[in-house]
């Protein structure tokens, strides 16, 4: 039993890097970071038309759903394109991915779990998580921002959404989102 081998040294180094203490220290430092506040504005391209290019798909329904005027009990998943402008061919910013459930018996309301995943620009690789009740026939619908990743680690805030346009023939909607978000300055964490 001589000196430790290179593999033993590598295993020890990996264990040191992965220790909870290291992550805990990073978290404590993160909490001491300065806070930034920003406003984002973008559009979701919501394709429900029944074709192969749809971005919203039904994955489950309750026994009551076919007879419900509000589609109560319907569960759908989505992977909508996020664009800078209402035109579906405008600059692509990312994807809105998540699950929506028709949860209002007497009013068309959705319970939503959305992740805005940014694939370009200064927020590339970061996400914002939005969860809450969305009364879809209302104007200026508010949903809370409950977290995020990457640049938006420890995010909080809210969104205001509106239906920008809806084509009943194509079953295609454009949703406008304005997001007010506070998050910890990643630059300050380094």
UniProtKB/TrEMBL annotation:
It comes from Penstemon davidsonii. Dirigent proteins impart stereoselectivity on the phenoxy radical-coupling reaction, yielding optically active lignans from two molecules of coniferyl alcohol in the biosynthesis of lignans, flavonolignans, and alkaloids and thus plays a central role in plant secondary metabolism. Keywords: Apoplast, Secreted. InterPro entries: Allene_oxi_cyc_Dirigent, Dirigent. Pfam families: Dirigent (PF03018). It is found in: Secreted, Extracellular space, Apoplast. Belongs to the plant dirigent protein family. Homodimer. It comes from the Eukaryota. The keyword Transcription regulation does not apply. Its main location: secreted. This is Dirigent protein.
